[in-house]
Amino acid sequence: MMRKKRHSSVEKVAGTTAATKAKKSRNSSRQPKEAAPEEASETAFATFVKKAGVSLKHNGASHEIAVDQVVFQKRIQQQLQKSPRYPDILKEFITDLEAYIENPDRFRNCLLPCIPQPSEADVRSVSSFQESLIRMLLGIEMLQTLIISTLLEKLPEFMFDGAVDGGLNIPRMIINQLKWLDRVVDTKELAVKLMELVSVAPVEVQRDIITSLPEILEDSQHNDIARELNALLQENTQLTVPILDALSSLNLSSSLLTEVREAVMATLAAVQLEDLPVVVKFILHSVSASNAYEVVSNLRQKLELEQCVLPPALQASQIRMKSKSSAGSASTAASGNSQDSVTLVLDCIKSAVRFQKTISEAWLKAIESVDDVEDHKVLDLLVLFILHCTNANQSRRGAERVLKLKVRTGLMQEALLQKTFRDYSQVMRGYFPSILALAQSLVRSPDPCVVPFGGQMYRHSFTAFDSYCQQEVVGSLVTHVCSGVSGEVDVALELLCSLVMERPSEMALYAVFVKGILDYLDNLTPQQIRRLFHLLSRLAFGQQEQGSQIQSIRLFLQDDMHIVIRKQLSSTVPKYKRIGIIGAVMIVGSMGALRPKGKESQSSSLSQETLRQVTALLELVKSSSESSPEAAALYYDELANLIWSSALDPQVEEMIGMSVLDDFQDDFVVDLGPDIAGSFIFPACAMYNLEEDESQGGIAINLLPLLAKETQNKGEQQSQIGKQKQQKLVSPLCLSPFFRLLRLCEEKRHQGDLEEIDALVGCPLILTNMDVVDKVDSLSKAEREFLCTLLFHTINWFREVVNAFCKQKETEMKMKVMTRLQNITFLQMLLERVLAGTPGYMPPVSNFDGETTDGISFSVPVNKAKKDRTGKKRKAPGKNAPEGVSQPEEATEADETQQEQPEKEKEKENRLGVSLTAYRPFFRELDMEVLSVLQCGLLSRSLLDSELHTKVQEEVVLGPTELVFLLEDMQHKLEFSLTAAPAKRAPFLKMRADKTVGFSHLQQRSAKDIASYCVQLLPALCSHLENCHNHFQTLLSENNGIVDGPSTDVEEHQVMSSGYQLLLQVINTTFSWSGFSQPGQRSLLKKALGLLAGRLKEGGPELTLEQLVKHSFEYLLNFRSTMPSLSTALCLSQLLSTVSEKGGNPGAYREQTASLARRFLNQSWVTASGEKERGGKFNEALHTLLSIYLEHVDDVLKAVEEIAGEGITELINTSKDESSASWPTLNRQTFLVFYKVLMGELEKAARKIPAGKMSDSSEAQSEKLLTWNLAVRDFHILVNLVKVFDSRPVLNVSLKYGRLFLESFLKLGMPLLDYSFKRHKEDVQSLLKTFQLSTRQLHHMCGHSKIHQDTSLTNHVPAVKKSLELFVYRVKAMLTLNNCQEAFWMGNLKNRNLKGEEILSQRSQGSDDDDEEEEGNQELPPPQEQSDDEDQEADSGENSRISRREDSTEDSD
Prior knowledge:
mainly alpha; 3-stranded mixed β-sheet; 62 helices
């Protein structure tokens, strides 16, 4: 009864709350009257409180409580209920309370906690902490509503007072009374009143009320109050933080939470920077697994960190402009605050990612889905760093994978990384371990596209972070260098070099780390050793700040390097001597470097002491290398590289130049007399003299006598070792390197003028008469090897002469260079013939800084390895043979397709000689400048005094052979420098072949420089291209369109054809350079395309890139009518494809490219000798061309059906050696090529058919079914061709691609049948009927493979049978889905061979014949009848399952 009574009183009290405001005004008017007597006579409020156990204190003292607060509340409640004036006493009590708290001090006391009364009796019963009087009264339910109204009415009086004395904030204290009440009687009314207060209160009070709402209101009010807060958020961004704090603590429904989050997201752009972390935290903490990706993508799009840091960046520039102004400190503070806010935002993301796996996955997916460079933000990189630094392995791997993917595809570029480090260095410092780990991973990647990005991460980390991070960066780079993996070492050394150049004083502090690499020199290539000593010598001898610490480090490093160099130079092991030579020359480069002028503190010229040290070091290297010709040659090459690439002090250059000039004359140049003294293996005579007016009294290069002397010395070396060391050895091995050094010294000293040594370009060499080559078969082995060596040295001398004088402007010089090129091509032809008769010959080394000089002493193992290798390659036919060089793989393919070259061709190739391709490392490297000779194609000997490029109606000096020679060299260079390198992962067994041999000078140029040089040569290349076109056009017109007409010169035709093909290859390689896709190279690309387009149509720079591509495509298309061979036609198709991709719309050229490829495929290709083209090279070109045609054609399935249905059918009906009428390139020898491409492209096309969806319309389903019908029909035609062409390679292709096609059908086709079975039963039936025939044929192939026990075929059988069985059960699942499962039943198929004959070696007891089963299916009801063919197909699958069991039985037997 007591409880009921109390509840009713509460209800009555609640009903009186409507008159709150009137009561307030009444009380306030009465207050002055009651204030005086209040002291004298106690009110009901004071009496009740005192009786309940609380002593009211005045004068600032806290109220004292003598009982526990629960007892106090119970006593108050009992007094009120027992009062005779109940329930009116409640109003009286509240009125008295209001009167009491009118005094601000008393009100403050009532809001402060009570203290226990110091009474001995009750001290144990009272807790040490007590609530305030007001809060204890709020715990009494019958008073709660009235007191809350009183407090909320009281609150506006203190709204604008702020904190009173003692730092107490009365509004906040009032709000705190309402928190965490055991029960709120009228929570709805309380919520309304609180929101009314929020609408009128100042911001500080608004914040206090809003943040307290979750602690005041009950759960039932959370959704309503959230809606009001959401509306308030739209109106007042100042309250963003408290509202979001409150919303985070409210228990909201998912729909309301989504609504609130979307509203918050909409205001994100207007949020204050300091509020941003709270907003981001709320958004991320309010997501669920289902909407994580959507929310994160939206947040990523709207979160603009760039705007947060831009003003500080501008302020930083102001700080630099006025460093001493007072604004500087303020700007710095502002910049710091913005960085702090960004840090807090990232911390919010980090905590969300760490504790919610779905959010980390959503961030990865959101970043991965961006497909435009411009759309990527700094935030993306920062989030990837955050994801990598979390503990989860999956998140770490995911961040690494996405970063590599973005860098590989070019979507994240160096500019974004630079911006991130520049503007957020303070933020990123916290993620340094992750940045370092990601950089290590990228640099170690086998993908060359991502390695430079990792290098940039290292560089920016060193630049932006503190000394600890710098030390870690240097340590990590040193680890890369010592790893021994070529790609890693190159990138790390390049980075260390750039850091030494940019920040020498900082790098000097970490020189001891870099010096540690000296212990790992064995793992480095000569190029890497050169780079290492370059950076060490820069650290030790370069110009740096003269701090005491840095100076001591430099002196320490100098001493160590001198010790290492002397130790290496004194070694008798050629490898270590080579390291010493390279290191010493690099030190000379740093010690003798040209000092910058204009510094008062330092003399601009070299000191005498430094000059003396440089001279002494050079003398030491020279004396150490005299005993070995290879070491001496390396020294000359290294010194030449130094002079070419570095700016040395004039005194050093002069000292080296004078010494070199004198030594060269003494060692290699002799005066030419009437007779040549001495007896040699061959009679000596002066050859190749271009100085016609100096028949006597001239100079000559003393080559033959020196070579004879060296050969003689080698024979006597065992008996006269002591004497040999006493006299200086002059080896012809040093001739070319020494001349290169001499030429570069003269160029430096005389600013490119070679007048001092111009006699060497035309002077003769002392050789022998080359008629001896015709009698090579009658020579002894020693004589043949001597002749080969003589030819190698002569060719290398001429190559260096061409290198030296190709840049000279005088017409006479140009003509001599042309003649030397002719000498080279003639001597190479002779050399090919001599090498063919000299098996096992080892040529002299000519590139001394490559890996091939590991054994420069020519020890037996190295000799043997090289002989074996060159011996194998020497089996290839000559370069002038119609099919080019045959490789072992091509020979294998030729065997497979039963194509063998006639014996006559083989004899002819052997007679011509071997290919010099294998011997390319033994020729001196041609400089890029030599290619400028390509521009001099119209210069004639008859007009020596005319200007360059004068058009003359006489024979062109640059003949076809020289053109091919230069183009071959150019193509090698472009493939090396512009083509993307393959994976750089080190092989398990280090191979001896070094692909960088012969490219050491080219490696010192950037890819951009080489591409620019090629673009400059484009007009000359186009002129030669047009000349080749005109040549073949004239030839065809003379012969009435017949290639092998009577006036055709076979040899000339071959050379011109090679030139034509090489020109197209060179232009294609140039345009294929990946650098053109970079934004900075767009102008170079436009220039290159403009040069091509300008040949056809004059246009200015106003043409767009798309227009330039269009005109270039049209220009190149004009060459299609004069293609001399299929390989050349392929090169043209590839070039057109490459050019079309440079525009924004490559699809516009698909039809033209396909049409051109079809034209070439429909052409009959005949050589100049009248025979049809054939062989490995032809098949390879045909394969690529057919692939291009099918990739560019509009309807692949239709094209496959056309070739397979018409072309191959025609072939079957022809005789053995004839071709298909509609496809002349299709014959029995090329059938395998066609079959492989058709199967591959069909399978690729099937993978691109969209998967069936339940939501597809009937029309969409019909269209997809039609596409699959075409694909399955093509597949059926191709698989059944095995019955006619049953060779092993054809079966292999059929099994491989048959399985892949079946898997694609299971994955993409069967879902379509699931959903379209009911609507399109007849189409599904037709499709499966055709497919069943193909799968049965595949089963027969498996049986055939098992019988013949062919390993290459049986490897495919298990996977094929598995797919066939999967197909059976997938059909059953489809029928079950469409309620036709009773129509499905399985029988047993017999194992058969390709001819359909039963395989009798296996027992198949109880198996029914498939024909009988098919007849049984006719009796099924109409709905089931539609699926007869599925049943039949099931037979095929069951057959595969049974045959597997039988196979295992047979194996066990």
